[in-house]
Amino acid sequence: DLQHHSGEDIYAATGAYRSFRILMALVCAFGLICHQVDFKNAFVNAEMDEEVYTTCPPGYGQSGKVWRLLKALYGLRKSPKLWFNELASFLKDLGFQHCPDEPCILINNETQLILFLYVDDLLIIAQPEYLQQVNNFKAAVHSKYEIKDLGEAISFLNIRILRDVNAKKLWICQDGYINKLGVKFGIDQSMRTATPLTSSYRPQPFEGQATIQQI
């Protein structure tokens, strides 16, 4: 990492997990719709706010030459902040306002839409009768950024979202993420783990005071 540590504020707000859980509780309790949008190559949509230069990748450019960055790139420390400011400015132009204590939750009082932002993933929450407003919002976003419309949210940040709308029940679970970790670390759930004790052993309560050796 050859980036200069200037002490400049590079903090970019990130949606809190507790906020996500609260929003899911509201979706469940009031029967709201929840759609998801993914921004493609999000960071490069943001303009650089200072002069930054980088060496050319192998096979490109001329020897001894450097390139000036015009857009925020992945790997640059301040790219997350630049992207957040870029998107926040665009959403403000559409009439959205940040919640005072959670900048990644935005509300539009006119269209009755609630947004939850986590870097390049966006949840859109609304009453079912405002589905057209949801679609209009997606179209407005797509007119400026390249996005992937994922429709009804069923998986967000490795969290699976299961709903029973009629029963007003909603579950959020990370079984898929757990399975990925199992594969990553070579844990096979189908294999039983050998233990130093037999399965028939039943420990008895100890009435006395354990010694250091016993502990």
Task: Based on the model shown, name its key terms.
DNA/RNA_pol_sf, Alpha-Beta Plaits, Reverse transcriptase Ty1/copia-type domain-containing protein, three-stranded antiparallel β-sheet, alpha+beta, 215 residues
Number of domains: 1
Strand order of the largest sheet: 4-5-6-7-1-8
Strand content: 25-35%
CATH architecture identity: 2-Layer Sandwich
The SSE order reads HEEEHEEEEHEEEEH
Would you identify the regions where 5 or more consecutive residues have pLDDT less than 50? none
Q: How many beta-strand runs?
A: 11
Rg, nearest Å: 25 Å
Q: Kindly state the percentage of residues in helix.
A: 10-25%
The biggest beta sheet, please? 6 strands, antiparallel
**Helix count?**
4
Q: What number is the mean pLDDT? A: 87
Distance between the termini: 47 Å
Estimated structural class = alpha+beta
CATH class: Alpha Beta
CA-based shape? extended
CATH third-tier fold name: Alpha-Beta Plaits
What do these coordinates show?
The chain is of the alpha+beta class and 215 residues long. It has one domain: Alpha-Beta Plaits. It has helices at residues 17-30, 79-93, 131-142, 175-184, and strands at residues 33-39, 53-55, 66-68, 97-99, 102-108, 113-118, 121-126, 147-152, 155-156, 159-164, 169-173. The strands form three sheets. A six-stranded antiparallel sheet has the order 4-5-6-7-1-8, with helices on both faces. It has a three-stranded antiparallel sheet with strand order 9-10-11. The longest helix is centred in the middle third of the chain and has 15 residues, at 79-93. It is extended. The mean pLDDT is 87.
